[in-house]
What we know:
Blueprint: E1 5-9, H1 15-24, E2 28-32, H2 35-39, E3 43-46, H3 51-60, H4 64-72, E4 77-80, H5 82-86, E5 88-92, E6 104-109, E7 119-124, E8 134-139, E9 143-147, E10 152-156, E11 166-171, E12 174-177, H6 188-200
Parallel strand pairs: 1-2, 1-3, 3-4, 4-12, 5-6
Antiparallel strand pairs: 6-9, 7-8, 10-11, 11-12
The protein binds glutamine.
Amino acid sequence: MSGPTVGVLALQGDVREHVAALTGAGADARPVRRPEELDAVHGLVIPGGESTTISKLADIFELREPIDKRIAGGMPVYGSCAGMIMLAREVLDGRPDQRGFDGLEMTVRRNAFGRQVDSFEAPVAVDGVEGGPFHAVFIRAPWVERVGDGVEVLGTVTEGPAAGRIVAVRQGNLLATSFHPELTGDLRLHRYFVELVRAAT
Ligand SMILES: NC(=O)CC[C@H](N)C(=O)O
């Protein structure tokens, strides 16, 4: 059986890595830059990168409204790092003009881990994903400061100065992680997402 068609929002960020990970996870993966390309996919990944830039380009490429509509219609979306910020209803320490999609009922803090741990790696177990903790890579990552009703916390940092911080969440078909599984060759999270897309299609 061929896999579901999954797009990667290709405005800015590590698009190629997500396309490769999704392909490895069995999806028919492709970049999405135009509304017509969005129409052709059953799920969408918002990559890591720079959320302020992605926000600006989403308006310029006229993708904001179509993406919000697809989210409202139940399309599965997975955001990693900047993608998590783009999927949050509220952003702390964001730029005043940046705006996310109508995504998860949560508040994220941008660049939350601060200078000392700007970039770091830590084991993170994700509920629903078997095989032990992820070797999670954080690069100027956000954390989740508050979750609303209906948002499931799937993973927290378990050691070091950031212990206890929420870094993986899910609300219905929306999934977000502070870290970048697309950079470590661990396909489990992309497989989990591709299954979600398959189930929703
Ligand atoms: N690795 C990343 O995606 C970094 C996110 C970036 N700091 C932002 O605010 O969008």
